[in-house]
Structure formats: structure tokens, C-alpha cells
Amino acid sequence: MIGKRLRERGAKPRFALAFACLLAGCAAAAPGVIAPPRADDRAADLLVPSGHGSLLQDDITLTVRGDGVLLKVTPLEEWVVRLTAPDTWSRLSSLAVAHRDEVVRRTGVERPALFLVSFFGAAPGAAFRPEDVEIVNRGRRLRALLVRPITSGWGEGRVAQGGTQLAVYAFPAEVDLEQALAVEYGDASGSAWEEILQRLEMERSRARARAGLGGR
Fold first, then answer.
1. What is the C-alpha separation between 169 and 143, in angstroms, rounded?
2. How many angstroms separate the CA atoms of 37 and 25, rounded?
3. Are the beta carbons of 72 and 117 closer than 8 angstroms?
4. Residue 9 in contact with residue 3, Cβ under 8 Å?
5. Over the stretch 178-189, which tens digit does the pLDDT of each residue have?
6. How far from chain centre, in Å, is Cα 157?
7. Residue 118's closest CA among 62, 187, 71, 67?
8. Around Cβ 118, how many Cβ atoms within 10 Å?
9. Helix or strand holding residue 165 (H, E)
């Protein structure tokens, strides 16, 4: 009986400690298991100080050749655009800021993946189909949640030869720019993202060195 009481008394401090740990957000992970970083932490880790990138917009852009049009898709994620030259970074980052709040309000998605989509006319009066732009990422085919036109003629579905029609596309938050990614438009596809990722990684090291942080 005495031993039983001692065991019960010994259990209370352990229970209290476990409960306090739970309230503090402690993780009871198995030995050797490390909790994965949060998405926000990972994005912060990828960021370089602003003003030290040197890439061109085309260096971070996927290109797809369609019927009479050239489609260009540029991610507006901050850790990506910050690796471009300062004027390009300022323009692309400002574009994301200008559209993000309205996208969140209308879609209910807290962290949508934003892309600048450009249709260039390669033939006179070429038609384009905004709804046919899809992203393939991590084995999933994703369609835009929302399209916010930038140029006034977007709704006409045609682009003059040598002209451009622009819009910001919002895709689901699960788009992972650190994984293989392809853009599909009808029967055409652009899937050179792995090459772009290598370019981004090299530029990140150079940008950190320019900022006096050393390569990583």
C-alpha cells in the first residue's frame, strides 16, 4: 500500500511537468527526430539582404511557346525575386505586395503562390487562353485560384504581334518552388525549373558574399 502511494505521488510531478510542457508547445519527439522547420522559417532562411542580387527577370522565368504566343511565367515569391537586380526586385516585389492582400481576401488562402504571367504576341492578332495555364508541381496539376489582369486588353483574349498582355496569377499555397516545377499551356510545356533552381542557389551565395555574409 505504501509503495502504491509513493508511486502515485511520484506520478503527479511527472504529469504536471508533461502538462506544462504541452502548454509551452514542447514536442515529445523520439530521440534523433528533429521537427521540420516551419514554412515561414524556411522562407526566411532563403532570403538574402535586399539590393545584392544581379539576375535578370528572364533568369527566373519559365518560357512556353504556344500557338502564336510566347508565354512567360515568373514567380513573385520574395526569396526568388530578391536574387534579381535591384530595379527588377523592386518592380516584382512591389507587384506581389500590390496584389497579395486582395488575393487573400477573395480566395481565403493565407499564403497564395503568386506568379506574373505574360503573353507575348508572336503572330498578328494571336489568341491566348488565360484559363489554360497550369502548374505541375510535386505530382499535382494546379490551376489558378484567381487571375488579376494588369493590362487593359487582357479580357479580349488577343495580343498584337510584338505586344504583351500581363496578369498576376494566384495558385494554391502548396506550390513548392524548391521542387521540380513545370508550366503547361495546352499541349506545350516549360519545365526548366531545375536549371533555374541551380542558378538561384549560385546567385544566393554570390549575393550573401556581396552583403558581407559569406557564401552558404
1. 9
2. 15
3. yes
4. no
5. 999 999 999 999
6. 27
7. 71
8. 21
9. strand 164-171
Per the listing, cell 518552388 goes with 177
Q: Could you give the 3-state DSSP secondary structure of residue 76? A: coil
Bridge partner list, 127: 158
Give this prediction's pTM. Answer: 0.80
Neighbouring CB atoms inside 10 A of 156's CB total 11
Confidence class of residue 19 from pLDDT cuts 50, 70 and 90? very low
SS (H, E, C) 22-61: HHCCCCCCCCCCCCCCCHHHHHHHHCCCCCCCCECHHHHC
Q: Which residue has the cell 502504491?
A: 4
Best CA proximity match to 82, nearest among 99, 94, 72:
94
Question: Which residues, in sequence order, are CB contacts of 160 under 8 Å at separation 6+?
Answer: 121, 124, 125
Distance of CA 48 to the CA centre of its chain: 15
Grid coordinates standing for 207?
549575393
The Cα diameter of the chain in Å comes to: 94
Instruction: Decide: 117 and 133 in contact? Cβ < 8 Å.
Output: yes
Instruction: Using DSSP bridges, classify how beta strands 113-121 and 158-159 pair: parallel, antiparallel or unpaired.
Output: unpaired
